[in-house]
Amino acid sequence: MQTGVIVSLALYFILMLGIGIYAWRKSTADSEGYLLGGRSLGPAVTALSAGASDMSGWLLLGLPGALYVSGLVEAWIGIGLFAGALVNWIVVAPRLRRQTEELGDALTIPEYLGNRFPSHAVALRLTSAVIVVVFFTVYTAAGMVGGGKLFATAFGGDYMTGVWVTTGVVLAYTMIGGFLAVSLTDFVQGCIMFAALVLMPLVVMFGPGGSAGESLARVPVEGFLSLSHGLTAIGWLSAVTWGLGYFGQPHIIVRFMAIRSVKEIPTARNIGMAWMGVCLLGAIGLGLAGRAYVERNGLTLADPETIFILLANLLFHPLVTGFLYAALLAAIMSTISSQLLVSSSSLTEDFYRLFLRKQAGEREAVQVGRISVALVALAAIAIAADPDSKVLGLVAHAWAGFGAAFGPMIVLALTWRRMTGAGAVAGLITGALVVIAWIALGWDQSFLGGPGVYEIIPGFIAAWLAIVVTSRSTRESGQADPVHAID
Q1: How far apart are the first and last CA of the chain?
Q2: Comparing C-alpha atoms, which of 281, 236, 237, 220 is closest to residue 71?
Q3: H/E element holding 447?
Q4: Which ranges in 348-390 belong to alpha helices (H)?
Q5: Which of 10, 173, 222, 466 gives 430 a disulfide partner, CB atoms 3.0 to 4.6 angstroms apart?
Q6: Tens-of-pLDDT digits for all 487 residues of the chain?
Q7: Cβ–Cβ under 8 Å, residues 75 and 283
Q8: Which of 57, 224, 225 is nearest to 139 (CA)?
Q9: How remote is the C-alpha of 322 from its chain's centroid?
Q10: What are the domain boundaries of the chain?
Q11: CB of 400 within 8 A of CB of 459?
Q12: Which DSSP letter does residue 441 get?
């Protein structure tokens, strides 16, 4: 069996590296090419790249694991995410694509904010870069944990070996090919993930050992198929407000900056939302059907987040199992590569070229970007060294940090004329600090003697209020005013 699996994975790795080499030859001569692909992405690549970089290993590990344990009630996370992604495509995508090009052809989110509010450009770019690097290091570690779990569970190998192998392949094509390599590999990886999430639930229910879904009703978890069983108002709010995080995820919204034109965004949105809907339904079906399959066949599963790996081993030919492992790696690697590149772009454009080498040439900037990718990866590996880490938990914290720090600021910067640079700085810092403090105090686990409140809720509200209050009490001259209707 191992031979067939290894062949499939080897072919997958070769394909990823081949794309990296193609992108290196095509678009890494300057910073715009390396960091933004020359703003040349078509709608399909934009859509699947945004989706694949968003739907990381949590889609095949964390979310099915949560549904495996608690049942359909955990699907509210997916519902909230779908709604948030749709609003993000409608509100943020067209405005960000236009404004980043109009305001100095900004290559990064911090650079856009600096151009939008020039009186506070340095503070915004530096603070944004710090937040990007800190939270993305944690987020990247979540993907590496997924890679380690795959190798340890599927091959009985060493967890850290899996972390290093996963990271090594990602580093190779990201450092070589930059943004275009990341986007093209995301497109391929998105297709693989789509196929796996359609195939797996169907085989689990209708293949050998399945029961056409009949055994779902006999899972020994009360309210397993209920969307409301045991759900409190706070629990529901904490689940659906995951959708708020979309507005502030740099690795997702940077795709909006790279599409060829604003006119192609509706097409990309339709493709992206259709892909996301099918993938979320597949992940939900995988968690529910996987639990029913385990119960029906008297199996044991120590870690619910490995249900995908267990079923891939049991139900498929080795070559198909290798393909399914490749789908899991695709989910993991697509997000890691996007996060590493965004962190690299912030370190290069918003720190190195802003403070250390203002006159750095394009070739030097690209080389610094590659070094930055490696440094962030090493820091993430240190965090991922604990094999007991939970993918969904790490993702939840990083997602909340970005959503609260950047979300309100991005939405208001794109849509509200009266927003000021002082307000932007206040919102950025307030959102990040509230999320960090909420986690440190344990209020995400238990709040006022009741269930925990997801940290994105207080962080997002506090940041929004900080921006509005500070902007209304300050006046600035000379700041850009690109806020107008989208044709």
Answers
A1: 56
A2: 220
A3: strand 446-447
A4: 362-383
A5: 466
A6: 467 677 777 777 787 777 777 766 665 455 555 555 556 678 888 888 788 777 766 788 888 988 999 999 999 989 999 999 999 999 999 999 999 888 888 877 888 888 899 888 888 888 888 888 887 787 788 778 878 887 887 777 788 988 888 888 878 777 776 667 777 777 887 888 888 888 888 888 887 766 666 778 788 888 888 998 888 888 898 889 989 988 988 878 888 888 888 899 999 999 999 999 999 999 999 999 989 888 888 888 888 888 888 888 888 888 788 888 877 777 777 777 777 777 877 787 777 777 777 777 767 777 787 788 888 888 888 888 877 766 657 778 888 988 999 999 999 999 998 899 999 999 999 999 999 999 999 898 888 777 888 999 999 999 999 999 999 998 765 566 666 544 4
A7: no
A8: 57
A9: 24
A10: 2-396
A11: yes
A12: T
Nearest Cα to Cα of residue 71 among 196, 223, 247: 223
State how far the Cα of 109 lies from the Cα of 251, in Å rounded to an integer.
10
CATH number 3.30.1330.90 is the correct assignment for the domain at 2-396: no
* Exposed/middle/buried for residue 3 (C-beta within 10 Å: 0-12, 13-18, 19+): exposed
At 170, the amino acid letter reads: V
The residue whose two tokens read 């967890």 is 159
